[in-house]
Amino acid sequence: MRGAPLEMPDGNGRGRLLPRALGLLSLGLGGAAVAAPSQVSRLIGVDDSVLARTVVLRAIGARELLPVPGALASRRPAGWVWLRVAGDVLDLILLVRALRQRRGVRRRRVAATLAAVAGITAVDLLAAVHSGRIAGVRRRTLRASATVTINRPADEVYRFWRDFENLPRFMYHLESVRSDGDGRSHWIARAPGGRRVEWDAELVEENLSETITWRSVRGARVPNAGRVRFTRAAGGRGTEVRVELAYAPPGGAVGRTVAKLLGAEPGQQIRDDLRRFKQVIETGEVVRSDGSPAGLATSQQVLQRPARPQGDGSRDRSGDGRKRR
């Protein structure tokens, strides 16, 4: 069972809540301007203008309705919200012109409308920037998945992974994970170039012995999310573990390229992690040789030599007993 796609932080329904609310606002305002322009023109103080009542307000209403489908239904509403911002700017220009031409009660109505539209513009701008940031995270997100079969019952494998503090035992890019309670945890990872990256994560979904899903909290320097599923392997051969990871390295396309050159390609990394996880669960330790002490990272590949048991650097394994020169 594959289930729903793994959601990155801010990529869930909460990240689309504000654009949808603005879409509903556009629907109400645009519908009113198209269906009842005379009443709207009187409310905002431009009812002395025949052109405003008959043409301008209907045109503004039609423009207001234009971004409604995208703001309400699109998974990437940033462009539609920016369309609202552009319309807001046009409305402000028209209202400033109307304010200069009105006197008395009509002027006060126009001024109140101008203040309301300015407030809506600020909210639209905030939503557009936020939606654009989410879209940027999606564009640079790296995703990977891998599966391994482990000769242990699902509940045992689940309990080991559920204690996130165990993860650095087989995920070598993790320096430490500290469980803070209430499903929150603090992670420290080794980044390319010898740097350290820290973030807080929250537990999103937990089905006993079946699924664990987590993601970094808002504001993490490297937004990330993960999911692991535990299913009974065919023929009673233990537990099939499927892991999905997603993260957005800083630096956009350049960051992605540098990460891969330095051996942080996510598909390769997750396969190494699962191989070590299987060894830890089944044997209690990670079996390594000095030929590949830390997996398949590029920096390790460059330095590799033919594998020998660790610590045995004095003899050739060919059996002739001669020392290697």
CATH architecture of the largest domain: 2-Layer Sandwich
| Helix content, binned percent | 40-55%
CATH first level of the largest domain: Alpha Beta
Structural class: alpha+beta
Find the count of extended strands (DSSP E, 2+ residues). 7
Give the number of helices. 10
Task: Provide the number of structural domains.
Answer: 2
CATH topology of the largest domain: Alpha-D-Glucose-1,6-Bisphosphate, Chain A, domain 4
Description:
The protein has helices at residues 13-35, 37-44, 50-65, 68-73, 78-101, 104-139, 154-162, 252-261, 266-283, 298-303; strands spanning 142-150, 174-181, 184-191, 195-207, 211-216, 224-232, 239-247. The protein has two domains: 13-138; 141-302, 2-Layer Sandwich (Alpha-D-Glucose-1,6-Bisphosphate, Chain A, domain 4). The protein is an alpha+beta fold. Residues 290-307 and 313-325 have low confidence and may be disordered. The chain contains ten helices and seven strands. The chain is 48% helix and 19% strand. Helix 1 packs across helix 2 (37-44). Strands 1-7-6-5-4-3-2 form a seven-stranded antiparallel beta sheet, covered by helices on one side.
List the helices and strands and how they pair.
Elements: H1 13-35, H2 37-44, H3 50-65, H4 68-73, H5 78-101, H6 104-139, E1 142-150, H7 154-162, E2 174-181, E3 184-191, E4 195-207, E5 211-216, E6 224-232, E7 239-247, H8 252-261, H9 266-283, H10 298-303
Antiparallel strand pairs: 1-7, 2-3, 3-4, 4-5, 5-6, 6-7
Helix pairs in contact: 1-2, 1-3, 1-6, 2-3, 5-6
